[in-house]
Amino acid sequence: MKRYWFLAAFGFVVLAFAAVWLGALNQDEGWYLYAARLVSEGKTPYRDFFYTQAPVMPVVYAAFASVWNSFGILGARVLTMAIGALGIAFFCALAARLVAPGRRAPAAIAVFLLLGSNLYHLYYLAIPKTYALASLFVAIGFFLLSFARLPSFRGAVFAFASGLALALACGTRISLGAILAVVGFGLLLSIRTWGRSFVWFGLGGALGLAVIYGFFLCDPAARAGLVAAQSYHAARGGFDPVFTIGSVSRLVRWYLPVFVLFGLGFAHRREAGGGTDALLVARLAFASFLAVFAVQMFAPFPYEDYQVPVMGLLAVFAVVLFFGRPASVPSCGLLLALGLAWAASFGSPLLEKWTTNGQDRFWTVKKDRCELAQLRDVARAIEEEDPNGDMLLTQDLYLAIETGRKVPEGLEMGPFSMLSDGEWRRLLSSAPCRIAALSGYSFAIDPPRCDEVPVERQIEYWSLLKKDYDLVLKEDAFGQNATTLLVLKRKNANQ
Predict the structure, then answer these.
(1) Which residues of 130-160 are buried (b: 16+ CB within 10 A; e: fewer)?
(2) For residue 427, what pLDDT is reported?
(3) Cα–Cα distance between 275 and 446 in angstroms, integer?
(4) Cα torsion for 331, 336, 338, 342, to the nearest 10°?
(5) Phi-psi domain of 435 (left: phi exceeds 0; alpha: psi -120 through 50; beta: other)
(6) pLDDT at residue 194 greater than cutoff 80
(7) Of 91, 186, 351, 407, which residue is most buried, by most CB within 10 angstroms?
(8) 226: closest CA among 218, 217, 235?
(9) Distance of alpha carbon 124 from alpha carbon 255, whole angstroms
(10) What whole-number distance in Å separates Cα of residue 402 and Cα of residue 50?
(11) How many domains does the chain have?
């Protein structure tokens, strides 16, 4: 087994480095970190600034604000990857708990290969969104659940702690609340064998939700902001079956090794030897994956990365099924998992996407720097133009994080900030910052529906800026989806 652990660790280190350093910039990582910075400064989500997600991530990350204040997006990505890696470790431990004693090490290694050698999975565990933290809480919740059948008071404690951990997952991504319902109902149906575990689990979940959301619900201003955040999501509306089918197709492509092992295990399914208690936990894990998958597929635009926090559950269930196959040989199974994982990741189209900007007819357009390095270079150029500045007019909030600057009030959500036409005009006419950094995302998205702002209005906004700002830097193919970034300096900035 040692050589498989070594190969799994080698694959993780190489692919994690690629995800952290080469991984494409994502607009979301800027405003998530900016929200956490505001919390670290004593501000409250929903009440003091608009925030569309559940509150746990900015509260947790606020404790680590010094990391990206000192090291920028790179520091935040390393921190987030560490959280994600811890979640993978708990999924590995869960798999080991759910199989026969002689197959625990192979099961743990297989899960580590399926998740820790999956470039797509590692990328979304690296960028500071909710996925790494939510995945960790989900993994901890099910790992604790696997001990809930211990005799006497110990089992009750584990059931209670499991409910609490899964409530924290729901407090990180609201859609994960479906797991609480699935597990609670499953434990209720198993009352004959699991006794009052569902009661303790329910108490843990209820207490967790009360602590997480209670404050915001009791504060009228915060409650209004929380309701507005959910209305924001609902307002996008619509349903595009083509987009939904495409999302499922891409999910299967990114996690093909997991689905292959799941298919092989399901074709020859048999209890994996961990006992009836382990079988229930494995089935609850799979049912929870299906529930969250279904909930997120009903979103107006169900991006496949929404499923990242629960893919560990599917990986665990696939491994439990696979290593329960009649006459299955653990070493052969590990070799298959290793081959599939490495073939999928080292041949991933992400590597090409991160190093090129498409193709110009016959010629591949290579990036001269990775996007993170480019971000850092632009941040240094802004600092040279405005030494020790504290404000930046931008909707690309990863630039605000990288430069250590604040943005004008109302822009805390970056390109998804909700300003009316009048508010935009007043903001731009006031020229509030010495430096403005504006990419193709600036003024382009009209939230909450996220339609494109009419081009005529966008031109008017740029005309307002032109009155007070001069162009000092043009950066082509910058940031998410390689738009043009213009860095502008206020005309009277040196006076």
Answers:
(1) bbbbbbbbbbbbbbbbbbbbeeeeebbbbbb
(2) 95
(3) 54
(4) 170
(5) beta
(6) yes
(7) 91
(8) 217
(9) 13
(10) 21
(11) 2
SS3 47: coil
Residue 53, classed as helix, strand or coil, is coil
**CA terminus-to-terminus distance, the chain:** 68
How far from the centroid of its chain's Cα atoms is residue 41's Cα?
23
**CA 36 to the chain's CA centroid:** 15
Clarify whether residues 302 and 422 are in a common domain. no
Query: Do 14 and 45 belong to one domain?
Result: yes
Looking at the fold, whether 17 and 83 belong to one and the same domain comes out as yes
pLDDT at 360: 83
Q: Could you tell me if 244 and 379 lie in one domain?
A: no
Judgement on whether residues 46 and 106 belong to the same structural domain of the protein? yes
* One domain for residues 160 and 209: yes
Query: Do 246 and 143 have their domain in common?
Result: yes
Containing H/E element for 418? none
Q: Where a domain ends, among 298, 319, 349?
A: 349
Which residues are within 8 A (CB) of 218 and not within 5 positions of it... i.e. 6 or more apart?
Answer: none
Q: Is the pLDDT of residue 205 over 90?
A: yes
> Which of residues 349, 384, 406 is at a domain's end?
349
Judge if 86 and 196 occupy the same domain: yes
- The pLDDT tens digits of the residues spanning 292-350 come to 999 998 877 789 999 999 999 999 999 999 887 555 667 788 889 999 999 999 899 99
Q: Is 459 a residue whose pLDDT tops 70?
A: yes
Q: Is residue 359 part of a domain?
A: no
Q: How far is CA 44 from the centre of its chain?
A: 21
Block residue for tokens 């213009």: 486
Counting beta carbons within 10 angstroms of the beta carbon of residue 188, is it exposed (0 to 12), middle (13 to 18) or buried (19 or more)? middle
In a domain, 244, yes or no: yes
Instruction: Fill in the DSSP letter of residue 176.
Output: G
Q: Is 282 exposed, middle or buried (0-12, 13-18, 19+ CB in 10 A)?
A: buried
* Residue entry with tokens 């494409």: 24
What is the bridge-based pairing of β-strands 393-394 and 435-438? parallel
When computed from its CA atoms, the radius of gyration of the chain, rounded to whole angstroms, is 24
- The residues, any chain, with a CB within 8 Å of residue 290's CB and separated by 6 or more, are none
- The two tokens of residue 461 are 């906004």
In a domain, 362, yes or no: no
Domain of residue 111, residue span: 2-349
Residue 167 to residue 142: CA distance in whole angstroms: 12
Token pair listed for 76 = 């935040």
> C-alpha 145: how far from its chain's center?
24
